[in-house]
Task: structure prediction
Amino acid sequence: MIYLDNSSTTQPCAETVEKVTELLTKTWGNPSSLHSLGLAAEQEVARARRAVARALGCTPEEIFFTSGGTEADNLALFGAAYARKKRGSHIVTTRIEHPAVLHTAEALEREGFTVTWLSPDGQGRISPAQVREAIRPDTILVSMMAVNNEVGSLLPVAEAARAIAAKKAPALLHVDAVQAFGKIALRPLRDHIDLMTVSAHKIHGPKGVGALFVKKGVRLAPRVFGGGQERGLRPGTESAPLIAGFGAAVEALPGLKQEEERIRGLNQRLRARLAGIPGVSVHSGEDALPYILSLSACPVRAETMLHFLAARDIFVSTGSACAKGKASHVLAAMGLPREEIASSLRVSFSRWNTEEDVDAFAAALQEGLNSLCSS
Result:
């Protein structure tokens, strides 16, 4: 099997599987219980919180566990907008956000908030100038992803923080770092980021758990009410097995710089192979995060090619897994022709991919074009 769909999800690493199994079979107490079994579970949750905090260069008290990136994004946007609505009603985000941000911003817009939507260029990039022009004195929230999940473009997060300060806006800066976490160094405190979303299953951790960094002193309006877990911001009995598995995955991360260099080599190798295949075009810019490469193989529809590849045990995606086969709103926002959007595929790498995987995919793609175009 050649798995090249790591932006959708990753295979859990051995450390995660071992830790989740341990919490399910041995340390299975309720972290809120006062007896020894509960205390042992609470200690595992605390260890995971420290691991995520170390990776982000913040304090454990600034990490709040959630059920995943989608919940963390919703909590950040709704929580910030409701907490700051007396100071303004203007929100800035982009047309290429993950649906967890996109649809939340649309919901806030329907409630009466004003949203400025920034559109990308043909390679999925948002310019610093766009961000500077969009932020106003009444802007209360800016939300943008660190890395686009479909084409890998890097968004100007640092410029957004500077623009908020320059405009003296009462805005919080939220960064969806789901695709960036574990791939590039993230330091929200250094970069003046107030809220940051991360997820476990993109870094070989378990599904169903994520985290929201909330800068000390930032107040969010809670969306869920119940017990006092997660300091009242996200109440409910913690899923200790998943949280502990998340921590184990973070602790098992390889050196980011060295691994990015290796992945960049795979990306460049794939680009070179694709350049020799008629009908194939690459959408990801050379300056995109190398873990993601978006391409089109015209005129074959993406779903048809995906199944052709899957029959040969090669797994890629047609874009964001959350879209479930719908046309990519990211590629549409980039202004790509309809036929390219319809035939778009996303290749995404992990630390377990090899040059042989790249070569096998390119050869199978060539075979697919030859076979499907002649049938």
